[in-house]
Structure formats: C-alpha cells, structure tokens
Amino acid sequence: MNINGVAIGGGSSPIKLTSQTLTSASWSLVSGYYTYTFSNVNITVNTRVDFTPSTASYLEVTTCGMQTQVTVAAGSCIFYSLFPPQTNITGEITIFPTV
Question: Quick one: which of 42, 43, 44, 66 has its CA closest to 53?
Fold first, then answer.
C-alpha cells in the first residue's frame, strides 16, 4: 500500500485484466446456473476475482442475472448467471492476490 508515495505494509497489487470477453456460447448449464470458466495463472484458491462489466455490457449482465460471487480454484474461476447471456459480455476482471 502507498500513502503519499511511501510504501507501507506488504502484499501484492491487484491484477487488472482489461477488455476481457466472456463469450455467450461458452456458458454451460450446471446445477441450475449458467457457468463460465475463466482461466488465468494468477488465480489461486485464496484470491478474490471481481468482474466489472463495460458500459456496453452492463444491461446484458443485469438481464442474465450474472452473479458477483465467483468460485475460485488454482488457475481458474467460475462466474455464475441465472439465464444464458444472449450476447458476449465484456469488461474488466480484477484478481486480488493473497496478502
């Protein structure tokens, strides 16, 4: 963490992956939810992964009921949706490393 340009504490900075596309054809129905598996080497079992939709995809995220909670495992995470997205969803994926 930096305060007024002075580094304090430990930990890693969040990793921001901009302009990511979750393709509509890649969602699968599993146990009542549509799921999308996203893989990245920086994801570990203790990281938190957030998805922020672009302005163009915000309505699609709302309509399909995409959940903010994801399941993480080593090397990947799973996004959940109540309904299958009708179009590709774009946005920023942020990986918060373990401190």
Answer: 66
Q: Are 61 and 52 in contact (CB under 8 A)?
A: no
User: For 26-77, what is each residue's pLDDT tens digit?
Assistant: 999 999 999 999 999 999 998 999 999 999 999 999 999 999 878 999 999 9
42 closest CA partner among 13, 21, 82, 2: 13
Confirm if 64 and 29 have CB atoms less than 8 A apart: no
Greatest extent of the chain over all pairs of C-alpha atoms, in Å: 48
Closest residue by Cα to residue 20 from 41, 40, 45: 40
- Tell me which H or E stretch contains 89: strand 89-96
